[in-house]
Design goal:
366 residues, two-stranded antiparallel ribbon, eight-stranded mixed β-sheet, binds zinc ion, alpha/beta, 10 strands
């Protein structure tokens, strides 16, 4: 395998969080970086180049030094085949440049793109959140999308749902959204489901082969509980985004790695319980109230981006999901500050326990 030094700068200014300082008492690290800067080469070629500059190192010593540099994400394997064709390389040029920052010798930049191409995302709702998320998912190169919605396009959608046109008023949202995806990238496999979610079975029945669920459905009040139950049971990560007044909120559940939504607070969404908590009462009361949606375009696009980023993390693992087992809030008044509130796992959580009991022995539990 040939090894290449990534684009980087030898300087001491800029963002300190992106600087790497190497301890180099004998100058060997500097010599190795200088040798790598000559271009992609194999370990024996590197050794030869170092010997020419008067530094005699053994192969094991050089391999250890390369591994140490690789752990700082300074190296990548330049000969990994790119996504498949010059046309795809061109289409995903920016994606690949983004992934380069997270690539290592074992996980080249193209591997992240291939993971997206193999991914199947179930998108629940193609309204304010969903229509924004799916545009990003399509641009990222997710290979397969299943869209669920029961609504038709209405004039009030145009403030934040930019997939739709005036000529679509009265038409099925999910079909128009699928048309948009097909026109945008004909390689994406897209399926539509025109119905409401009325129980966990409605979600569970759609999870075969699905890698991630993204939900922007607000009603009925128990819908998040149902999605959670279905996804945790099938060990499929899921992400939820929504809006509360002037706050955006999103979280993800990474089954086997994070607490689930039922862990968050059993009483919160359990509106059928005989002794409901304050929040459950609030949910029940608010169900009957008329609601006006304050999700303007920038709000829906911002939330869509945050959720699409979390989806990218879940699908490629370029970094761990940021909001797994944590609610991330963004207050749009006052400069869009974020705050993250993790919740603990509930050792008595029935949803997690059921999922855990189906795990193979030794597998990680939540
Ligand atoms: Zn749980």
């Amino acid at each position: 395998m040939r090894i290449a030094l990534k684009e980087c700068r030898f300087q001491r200014w800029g963002d300190p969080s992106k600087q790497i300082e190497l301890d180099d008492p004998d100058g060997h690290a500097e010599a190795l970086l200088a040798a790598l800067a000559a271009g992609p080469q194999t370990i024996p070629e590197l050794r030869e180049r170092l010997a020419e500059s008067g530094l005699d190192v053994g192969i094991p010593e050089l391999q250890a030094a390369v591994a140490a540099l690789d752990s700082t994400r300074l190296l990548e394997a330049p000969d990994d085949p790119a996504p498949g064709s010059p046309a795809l390389d061109e289409r995903y040029h920016s994606n690949l440049a983004f992934f380069a920052h997270f690539a290592t010798l074992d996980a080249p930049r193209a591997e992240f793109q291939r993971r997206l191409g193999r991914s199947h995302v179930l998108q629940l709702g193609t309204g304010g959140l969903g229509s924004n998320v799916l545009q990003s998912l399509a641009g990222l190169g997710v290979g397969r999308l299943t869209l669920l919605d029961h609504d038709v396009v209405e004039p009030r959608n145009f403030a934040r749902q930019f997939l739709y046109r005036e000529s679509h008023i009265g038409a099925s949202k999910v079909r128009r959204a699928a048309d948009w995806i097909r026109a945008f990238d004909s390689r994406i496999e897209v399926a539509t489901v025109e119905r409401r979610v009325e129980g966990p079975g409605d979600v569970a029945g759609l999870l075969d082969g699905v890698d991630l669920v993204v939900s922007g459905i607000d009603r009925p009040a128990s819908v998040d509980q149902w999605v959670n139950e279905a996804c945790v049971g099938a060990r499929v990560p899921w992400i939820r985004g929504g809006m509360l007044g002037t706050e955006l909120v999103y979280f993800s559940v990474d089954p086997g790695r994070s607490p689930c939504l039922a862990c968050w607070k059993k009483t919160t969404y359990d509106v059928e319980t005989s002794t409901p908590g304050v929040e459950a009462v609030g949910i029940r009361l608010s169900e009957s109230l008329p609601r006006s949606n304050p999700g303007i375009g920038p709000v829906a696009a911002f939330l869509g981006s945050l959720v699409a980023f979390e989806a990218l993390r879940c699908l490629t693992r370029y970094e761990p999901p940021y909001s797994a087992g944590a609610k991330t809030y963004v207050e749009v008044a006052g400069g869009c500050q974020q705050r993250r509130e993790p919740w603990p796992e509930d050792p008595d959580c029935a949803v997690c326990r059921r999922a855990r009991e189906r795990l193979p022995v030794g597998a990680a539990g939540p």
